[in-house]
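Re: beginner question about structure tokens

> Can someone show what the tokenized structure looks like for a real chain? I only ever see the sequence side.

Sure, here's an example I had lying around. Input first:
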Amino acid sequence: MEIFINVILPIPLEKHFTYRISENEASQLKLGMRVAVPFGKTKLYTALVVELHNRPPLVYEAKAIHDILDEEPIVTSIQLKHWQWIADYYMCTLGEVFRSAIPSALLLESETLILPNKDAIIDEDQLKDDDFLVYEALKYQNILHVNDIMEIVEKKNILPILNRLIKINAIVLKEEIHEQYKPKMVRYVRLGQRYNSEVELEVLLNSLTRAPKQSQVVLSLFHLQATKKKPIKLNELEIESKSSRAVIRALINKEVLEEYFIQTDRVVFSGGKELEPPKELNEYQVKALNTIRQSFNKNKVTLLKGVTSSGKTEVYVQLIEECLSEGKQALYLVPEIAITTQLISRLQEYFGSAISVFHSKYNMQEKVEVWKNVLNNKSKAQLIIGARSALFLPFANLGLIIIDEEHETSFKQYDPAPRYHARDAAIVLGGLFNCNVLLGSATPSIESYNNAQTTKYGYAQIDRRFGNVLMPDIELVDIKEQHRKKRMKGHFSERLLEEITETLDQGEQVILFQNRRGYAPILECTTCGHSPQCPNCDVSLTYHMQRKQLRCHYCGHHIAIPNNCLACGSNTLDTKGFGTEQVEQELNTIFPSAKVGRMDLDSTRGKHAHAKIIHAFENQEMDILVGTQMLTKGLDFRNVNLVGIMNADALLNFPDFRAHERTYQLLTQVAGRAGRTKKRGKVIIQTYNPYHQILKQVTTGDYEGMFREQLYEREQYKYPPINRIIRISFKHKEYNKLNEASAWFAKALHNASEIKVLGPEFPPVARIRNQYLKHVLIKIPKGVPLQKTKKNIKRIQNSFDAVSQFKGVRIIYNVDYM
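And the corresponding structure tokens:
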């Protein structure tokens, strides 16, 4: 009887693919193991086994697999269920989830090798110059890689060359699959086995009297073994003996020393000498903790609403300790990589080496190590801290999920698919493991708070700061009036400058928030009004003074700063608007003695850049830190007494139904960085409209008022949490084709009953990377089954795909669009 396997391929396919296996292979294979399989004409892919069966495919003949890549499964059955839910709910394919979830080092793809055809007789005179160069190179090298040929012919497009050589049988192509992950092997040394006896050892030491350097190495090894009582690394011996690697190598060659290797993780968190017990909670934290436990007993997802600096992390620590004491794993999700730096150092004090971290700044080798540690339930992977991608790790025994700052939009993935929301996907994962799920925030999302109010979620709150520190004093400054009276100095009001001066004089620190990076968003000619635009996107180029560039923040296109207007040739160029770079420059001019730092996407591109800036500010090596919304997310600076918000209106006037909610959240969060210890902090918000209702609610901390108003508006206009939303985006390089295609699709949707369709409409930025964009928004009432609507949309897409004139128009689904 023939045996078959169904596999997931890491490409956007709707269905599983079936391959043939032998009885011997069937005895080795388990669900969740990787296999290398041929797909298409020549390509080899890493596929994941999801089913073993005896049913041959009806439409195509099953191919044999190429190789089995694992000895044990690397993906669990619960993971596969979770992936299937993500694929179904967010309207993408299982292959897209697979590719996003697995570290890229585990997704092996084949590499094309070019070999000479030794049986063919080739007339070299008939070859073109480039073909001859490749043919000649293959006489001296039996195998060439694609990159080698690119270097030989100094061209990127080598496909025509390969096709010509294949046509005359000069070369043969071969696919080779290779493992990308390589374990880190650390080199250790020990005394050779023959010198274990005292007699042999004495002979050895006597023989080394004429080689003092070698004698010193051996004596240093004895000293290290006596003091450390652990395996001795080769580089440690080199330092201790103050000798060169060549001397140690000579002793290894003589078999006096033996070298051996031990596999070591690339990222290790040591726990210090002694772990601290969790801090004693105050009465408000204890009350919240007890409420959370009661809610967990009812198997409810729970929302913890605690004002900034109320000590939510200490409540989390208590829950994590209870979870780990039961032998279960805990997942702590954070919205930004920047937070992990401070969080790790705090949690290390309590949990030591039980911590693992997983986020996008780790390289693929480090990610694989964390993946394997979590899968094997290692002691070093009991508490996993990570950004949204940590959700996909292969947990063995998950007992608790904490989603900190649950309101953050960073938890939503926009590109590529799957376009999932980590908070919602984590709640589903918690249900699969039957584990506790806690959402935490000072400013919960409208959806989560509404779920708590309707008792779908449990609810706990802490309304006092730890140590009874007062909430910061928030003051609105009318910069329209300041401009009229000519009291502005650059982009700083008199009031903000007074407070900065006073804070610096008292030896305290300042945070300034401006949610736009670069120097200025627009460089404009004051003579003709021209401003340089991106050739690939419908946006103006942002002026970056530090790099001396005009740069597009959508596609990365950049040009050098022009000396004259590109349109009229005038040299009257001026900037409009301002970003973090300009704020930093103005501060250096106004406060020349102050040390100013900047934290935005441009200044944190390196792997440890976040950590360096945060440590420098914590250690008071900076007086003022200017930054974008990275600063708002859970960072704890003890010496910050003043927070300045440079321009609140840019947030309020954003074309989005969540703009007011997000403004309240962002301003409240950034204000919460001030006065977190004993002294009451101060917050200055600069605005052209100090009478705006949201800004008044921020100054009074009136979350309930904001929630009621926003909920009422959402009810009126049928937005979440009242209705579900699916945004369908259409992409194509041709403007007219996109218009026709999106109009056809929207008309078909209008004919579907019970759903409200808005659009198609162009977004504010209607062209990105030379692709035009158009959006259709679908509002689905709560009474209408979501799955039924999705099936209707997919049915319409099948008809759409059959229309030849719409070929090439890309459709992107964004469920629960944020």
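Each token stands for a local structural state, so reading them left to right follows the chain. Residues 193-255 form one domain.
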